[in-house]
Amino acid sequence: MISIKNISKWYGDFQVLTDCSADIKKGEVVVVCGPSGSGKSTLIKCVNALEPFQKGEIIFDGTSVGLPDTDLPKLRSKIGMVFQNFELFPHLSIIENLMLAQQRVLNRSSDEARSKGMQLLDRVGLSAQAAKFPGQLSGGQQQRVAIARALAMNPIAMLFDEPTSALDPEMVNEVLDVMTELAREGMTMMCVTHEMGFARRVANRVIFMDGGRIEEDCSKEDFFGTPRGERAQHFLSKILQH
Amino acid sequence: MISIKNISKWYGDFQVLTDCSADIKKGEVVVVCGPSGSGKSTLIKCVNALEPFQKGEIIFDGTSVGLPDTDLPKLRSKIGMVFQNFELFPHLSIIENLMLAQQRVLNRSSDEARSKGMQLLDRVGLSAQAAKFPGQLSGGQQQRVAIARALAMNPIAMLFDEPTSALDPEMVNEVLDVMTELAREGMTMMCVTHEMGFARRVANRVIFMDGGRIEEDCSKEDFFGTPRGERAQHFLSKILQH
Amino acid sequence: QELSGTLKKIKDSGVIVLGHRDSSIPFSYLANDSKPIGYSADLSSKIVDAIKQELKMPNLTVRYNLVTSQTRIPLVQNGTVDFECGSTTNNLERQKQVAFSLGIFEIGTRLLVRKDSPYKDFADLAGKNVVTTAGTTSERILKKMNDEKKMGMNIISAKDHGESFLMLESGRAVAFMMDDALLAGEMAKAKKPSDWAIVGKSQSNEIYGCMMRKDDPAFKKVVDNALASTFKSGEVNTIYKRWFLSPVPPKGLNLNFPMSDELKQLIANPTDKSAEQM
Amino acid sequence: MNYHWDWGVFFKPTGIGTEIYLHWFITGLGWTIALALCSWIIALSLGTIIGVARTLPGHFLSRIAAAYVALFRNVPLLVQLFIWYFMVPDYLPENLQTWFKQDLNPATSAFISTIICLGLFTAARVAEQVRTGIQALSKGQTNAALALGLSLPQLYKDVLLPQAFRIIIPPMTSEFLNVFKNSSVASLIGLMELLAQTKQTAEFTANLFEAFTLATLIYFTLNMSLMLLMRWVEKRVQVPGLIALGGK
Amino acid sequence: MDFSNIIPALPSMMEGLWVTVKLTIMAVIGGVAIGTLLALARLSKNSLLANLAGFYVNYFRSIPLLLVITWFYFMVPFIIGWVTGTNRPIGALTSCLIAFMLFEAAYFCEIVRAGIQSIGKGQINAAYALGMNYRQAMQLIILPQAFRKMMPLLLQQSIILFQDTSLVYAVGIMDFLNTARSRGDIIGQPHEFLLFAGLIYFLISFSASTLVTRLNKRLSV
Ligand SMILES: Nc1ncnc2c1ncn2[C@@H]1O[C@H](COP(=O)(O)OP(=O)(O)OP(=O)(O)O)[C@@H](O)[C@H]1O
Ligand SMILES: Nc1ncnc2c1ncn2[C@@H]1O[C@H](COP(=O)(O)OP(=O)(O)OP(=O)(O)O)[C@@H](O)[C@H]1O
Ligand SMILES: N[C@@H](CCC(=O)O)C(=O)O
Ligand SMILES: [Mg+2]
Ligand SMILES: [Mg+2]
């Protein structure tokens, strides 16, 4: 479903991504990890063209992402994305956050958008908060709303960029639970996260990045089991300490 | 030398200090500790009249601090003070920091002030940095300069308000060493600090404050040895954990 | 016949914009509300009536636009106002930029001074502060005189006649050079008119006209005809009497400024020539 | 439209003496610069005093300073100018009045009125900047200076103001530029500064496009050069190792 | 001083005040609209557009408003005449209004730009990720938030603009100040009318800025 082929990207002179390739099949859950600055966020943003790239190709659901004539809004509406800092729209109420793109992008009627929205809020356990504003919710609640907002577009794949790293520890699980459930239901997912427990539980594959390169791309069993490259080992030992 | 008699102080309705009394003799080193917000900084600032107080009296070297006709600049120039955030003057070079008050307050000539300044910088091991600006020094170095700046006025007593708590751990000792040496030479000192090692090594007495009151005022042996009030015990146990 | 130029513009937009002054007493000035009054203002209503008739537009909207001595010519040129009737001198230099109607008044440029002051003529003004209004013929005459005769006057160019008079009244200048009729108008407004006197030898004789855009003969013809018939019917004498020989707002003072022979001459034989051309 | 373009107009004689129109612009620019610099000196010194007064907590001077700022910031500059030029002189004592109105060259008296007006007007804005700058400094700096025995005036002169002024160089630059632009109001009381000369040239020559284009160019160049000058000043007074002084 | 003569002049002064207020409101609306477009241009990836907008802002910020007013007063009717080829009457007020809008747009542009930049990149990414296009993201997500943040600054600038409208005196538009001056002059009491005008300006802009300060405090908590 997502096929990343030899992507390279530069910021000015600085190369952030070097020749990255990966394939994510329908229904697969892939966890991306690696040290800070290794290019994880950049890679995942390339998938829905939030960041342009200079070399290589990304094919999503049969469409090449980087071509100038690609209908980006349409493509992006098929890919849900969840950000580290939630990025709810603070000037809109929770339910309006869920309705806006449905109405403007998918041209759903207000009633349709609202019932879809309420249904998803229900699913993440927040239907009671529909009329509140994002600023009135805890971080964990906001992130669940953000997931619901992405799901409201009926995406065929989801991207997560460290969805739990801005949360207080006691809220991490409520978000991971929602994600786990989503994975169980067969959603195609690409998650940047350092939550190795989550990776162990639900990932099919783990991609390890360092210095802009994909250093490892293997099944979860291989990643946590057999010996690997030195840097990945070092990284894992540091992560698992906690 | 410093005699604090029944001081009370309010910020609006809020009472910060309640009936505090203490006596510090010439050559004594007194450590003040207590939980955050207990009024330690406020008390120490009352001594050189940086904070006014509404009730009680403080006599420093025979002069009553709170009277309206006290010559405050003269009084203050006899009391050196060192702050948590160093408070060097960032627009002046290190040596100018040391010279400014000597020239303006003590009317020393520029040469005299400079040679005194260099001598003190030498003493704190920083004569090589004389021409630099505060922003170019590490925290530990800045704090040593701040001590030198206070000493340049030939104070007869020194006040320290958590001089090491804004420092990275590896720099704490370089500052404590300077303070220890100072104490050994017989300087009268009143130090707000949580460095219990320092207190054990050089203090004559320890004052424990809580909720704006002086809860304990006893010799260092008593403070660290025999049982005391419940709150002081609790505080000490938390402090000594680290 | 096909309309063109200003007439077409007025017809198309249904609006005519008149340029007026705010302190050219008693020609065109504001006294109590935002509609200008005065001798020239009355003549412009005659012109407007004629235009209404010509265009068969009895409900033509009339808009007023305040102009100053400095702004009036560009504003006529650039179309902000359609014609201006105030206290504007018709001269050759201005004819290069705008067109003038038949002459409507004739003046001489003189001085206003305090009655008890020692200044009786231009020659007395050497080294003194003298005020005049920016953008007027008097300003140029005064500057030229100052330069040529090396008089060392300090010339203040005020924004309008009201401000010029304020300078004189508050003692910043010892004399105010301007058209004699306008000086009489300023006196009529003064706190004590009897304190002031118009003195000095007239430095130039000038004929006022209404200004409009150049090269628009159709419009000029309507304007000129309207004036000519007002002159011929003698109606102009009533208007003259109203503004120069009766009490006028705001103070209700009478200017007592009888019609000069030159003006009588002008009314008898209307012309759009400037004084220099006669 | 009957408009006669003529870019050579600036080199034509004005008809008064031997001047050409370009001379008018140069004289005008001279007045503009003189006005701005004199007003700025007033604004900077008075503004600093008022700004400092506003930071004296609870002091009655602080109230007076606040009232000053409120008054001078909420009345249009032009109204203030008219008051200083048309009104205030009438209330001077008799002999001073005669001197001001009659003995002084009218250009000089208009100049004096304008720099007082513009100086006091800008002082209110400068005061706000100075206050912001001082308040951006930590309370600790004040404590440290006082603890060393510095007096209140010494505290401001040696410790607070040198730091505050460095912080507020960018907003002060724009106030400085504003003085140049605002000095054009002097044209409305007959002072022949740049804008007045432009208008007069436009009126005399009937080439108003050319006149105004030249004036715009002069102002633009003046502004850009002053901006570069202030950048240079900012660099000159930069303290090494102090990057984010303003960020405190 | 005798202020009693002001009372009969009040109706015409109100007319003048109305001109001032009208001018302020329309200039603010136009200025903010143009300023927003300029801000978007300044922030656009198209460097030609960004530079042009940058030049525009620098240009208008370096010349005096009074010069712009005077120049536009003479120029606008010419330009409109040339462009449209017709002779539609352009009132003096319209010329001034255009001058104010174009001039203030440069100042509003900087405020709006700062406002937009204060909204994190994450918000626009989130909007894009939901499939919105640039226009939708700006209109629905970024601008509503940006305007909320910059409201106090916009209002402050509008108060300055309110005071600056008095400069139309230079071209003889009968706004509040000019009416007061002209009335005072004809009655022979220029001082009284001038002080009265100053007082009214003060009351209006002082109460407006007090309100803005309150709003500012409310928004910052
Ligand atoms: N707009 C930008 N301009 C220049 N460099 C950038 C930009 N954005 C990111 N970078 C650089 O690109 C590199 C990769 O950034 P990226 O955000 O993808 O890392 P990451 O793996 O997501 O790190 P983290 O775990 O901290 O989120 C970093 O070195 C970063 O400094
Ligand atoms: N300017 C002020 N206005 C009102 N209350 C104040 C002010 N300064 C301090 N306080 C309050 O006074 C109390 C004592 O403050 P103080 O700074 O003396 O505590 P402290 O013991 O030094 O604490 P810390 O260890 O955090 O430095 C605190 O509750 C504080 O909130
Ligand atoms: N008649 C003179 C002065 C009158 C005026 O400007 O009002 C002129 O046209 O220049
Ligand atoms: Mg990242
Ligand atoms: Mg403290």
UniProtKB/TrEMBL annotation, chains A, B:
Presence of the UniProt keyword Nucleotide-binding in the record: yes
Keywords assigned: Amino-acid transport, ATP-binding, Cell membrane, Membrane, Nucleotide-binding, Transport
Ranges of residues in domain ABC transporter: 2-236
Recorded GO MF terms: ATP binding
InterPro entries in UniProt: AAA+_ATPase (IPR003593), ABC_ATPase_HisP-typ (IPR030679), ABC_transporter-like_ATP-bd (IPR003439), ABC_transporter-like_CS (IPR017871), MetN_ABC_transporter-like (IPR050086), P-loop_NTPase (IPR027417)
Domain of life from the UniProt record: Bacteria
Membrane topology qualifier: Peripheral membrane protein
CDD domains per the UniProt record, alphabetical: ABC_HisP_GlnQ
Protein name in the entry: Amino acid ABC transporter ATP-binding protein
Organism field: Deefgea tanakiae
UniProtKB/TrEMBL annotation, chain D:
Keyword Transmembrane: yes
Main location: membrane
UniProt keyword terms in alphabetical order: Cell membrane, Membrane, Transmembrane, Transmembrane helix, Transport
Record field: transmembrane: 20-53, 65-87, 107-127, 208-229
Residue stretches in coiled coil: none
Annotated localization: Cell inner membrane; Cell membrane
Keyword Manganese belongs to the record: no
Domain (ABC transmembrane type-1) ranges: 29-230
Membrane topology label: Multi-pass membrane protein
UniProt record similarity statement: Belongs to the binding-protein-dependent transport system permease family. HisMQ subfamily.
NCBIfam families: HEQRo_perm_3TM
Name of the protein this chain belongs to: Amino acid ABC transporter permease
Protein's organism: Deefgea tanakiae
UniProtKB/TrEMBL annotation, chain E:
Protein name per its UniProtKB record: ABC transporter permease subunit
Taxonomic lineage of the native organism: Bacteria, Pseudomonadati, Pseudomonadota, Betaproteobacteria, Neisseriales
Domain ABC transmembrane type-1: start-end pairs: 17-212
Keywords, ordered alphabetically: Cell membrane, Membrane, Transmembrane, Transmembrane helix, Transport
Family membership: Belongs to the binding-protein-dependent transport system permease family. HisMQ subfamily.
InterPro entries associated with the record: AA_ABC_transptr_permease_3TM (IPR010065), ArtM/GltK/GlnP/TcyL/YhdX-like (IPR043429), MetI-like (IPR000515), MetI-like_sf (IPR035906)
Coiled coil: none
PROSITE patterns: ABC_TM1 (PS50928)
Membrane topology value: Multi-pass membrane protein
Compartments it resides in: Cell inner membrane; Cell membrane
Transmembrane segments annotated in the record for this chain: 20-41, 62-84, 90-109, 153-173, 193-212
Location (main, coarse): membrane
